[in-house]
Amino acid sequence: MVAVLSFGLGSTLASGGSATGSTSSDQSATMSGMSNMNMNTSSQDANATATVAALPRATQSQGNQLATYVRDPDGAKHFTLVAEQVLWEVVKGSWVPAYTINGTVPGPMIRVTAGDHVRITFINHFHEATSIHWHGLEVPSQEDGVPGIGQQPIQPGQSYVYDFTVHDQDVGTHWYHSHYNDLNEIAGGCYGAFIVDPRPGSPQARAEVHADVDYTAFIGTLPGGYYVINGKSFPDTQPLHVRHGQTVRLRLIGADTLSIHPMHLHGHTFTVIAQDGHPLTQPYQRDTLQVAPGETYDLIFTAWAAPGSIYPFHCHILSHLMNPGQNASEMGGLVMLVIYDR
After folding, report:
1. Quick check: helix, strand or coil at residue 109?
2. How many whole angstroms separate alpha carbon 228 and alpha carbon 320?
3. pLDDT one-digit tens code per residue, 178-205
4. Which part of the chain has CATH 2.60.40.420?
């Protein structure tokens, strides 16, 4: 299976050791030594393939579900996130190894209100160390999730409790993601949304744009050459259902680690009202918006079309509209349908 070969477990497992490991500067390395090195690499690859083959299949089919919490005695909203490596069905019949939170890509959406005390128990069931960064939130450095600076990497089988309060300046669209071996872990699906709503009755709440539909879409990739929206490739991407006359808020999050994606909505002009979690003083209109790695955008559009209408929302890099093994006459990848319900 091609996806297995591209997962990179061999390199990620190798990178789990100390970054200061010794290296040989001896220029007289023998052919025998080189042969041993090749044998070791082959052994690592075989171990990686065996590890992937042992992964369980995901039991849930859709990510980005609202996270649940319990109230601690001190009033904190207490969430639990579990890092798990699973086989994820990216499109019907195609399973790829993924780094997930609570078994899905994306992980669950954390949605809280400014002023909330948030406590998150993070449990690492990956086969390697990891950590979680709260991208865009103003939190103390020890809660920021950067290994070697605010905390140590969370080793396999260990847990870490993040504890912070979200404030008025945090209102907006943010996300959480791995910050250890992130080139592999984020590209493998280790991320989720973190939305902070304004306090009821606050100036921010009064300035908030009312939306009938509020939808969050991660733009990213998964192993095996798949381009995905919320962890799925077309035609298995989840449609955005609207009704004529509704105001729609679309929160875009750039979870790709390498590429910029110009996202285009057919038949509509949208207004960009926020970027990177902050409202724009001068919103602007577009029908195509470039989403770079790590960026978030909030878009508003009016569902003007007749019931039964269907419009694609897609990346305008055409090679990103194909799944592995498809030809140019087939559509896949970064495509999501906007469907007008009757």
Report:
1. strand
2. 9
3. 999 989 999 999 999 999 999 999 999 9
4. 70-201, 209-340
